[in-house]
Design goal:
Layout: H1 12-24, H2 41-47, E1 50-53, H3 57-64, E2 68-72, H4 75-82, H5 91-94, E3 99-101, H6 104-116, H7 122-128, H8 135-146
Parallel strand pairs: 1-2, 2-3
Length: 147
């Protein structure tokens, strides 16, 4: 379900036409378009097999749901991420919960791997994002141990 970033609508001709042309060239699957948020994000995420973004909340949500996901972290994006933060790497990538595309070639390779199977993220996602209903208990225990 290709979905542009909501701000893309401001640059429709510059960004959307090449984006639509690239999607039309896909040789697998059937793209279902959701232009400008006609469907809520949680529904799209639940339906997705693969989530691709830069460093965003949707990637954290995808990792929590143990979904395949790719962080597009080209050098310019990494410079932006590091600017004003202590991050040297996107935390999800560092935890092994998101695959990192550092350039176009690695993005293509990760897309191909994802379409053939999976990106090998499940074990790290299950370790770091436990959805067993005991998260509040773990946080309370962690806070108690800080005393």
């Amino acid at each position: 379900i290709p979905r542009p970033h909501p701000r893309t609508k401001d640059n429709f001709k510059e960004e959307m036409i090449p984006w639509q042309e690239a999607i039309a060239e896909l040789k697998v699957g059937t793209p279902v378009f959701d232009f400008f948020g006609q469907t809520d994000t949680p529904s799209l995420l639940a339906a997705a097999d693969l989530v691709i973004s830069m460093y965003s909340t949707i990637l954290v949500e995808a990792a929590a749901l143990h979904k395949s996901n790719i962080s597009v972290l080209y050098p310019r994006v990494m410079d932006d991420l590091r600017s004003g933060t202590a991050f040297q790497e996107f935390p999800l990538v560092e935890l092994g919960c998101s695959a990192k595309a550092a350039d176009f070639s690695s993005l293509c390779e990760l897309l191909a791997r994802s379409l053939r199977g999976d990106l090998g993220l499940k074990e790290a996602q299950e370790k770091n994002f436990r959805l067993d209903g005991k998260n509040a208990e773990r946080v309370a225990r962690f806070i108690e141990n800080l005393k």
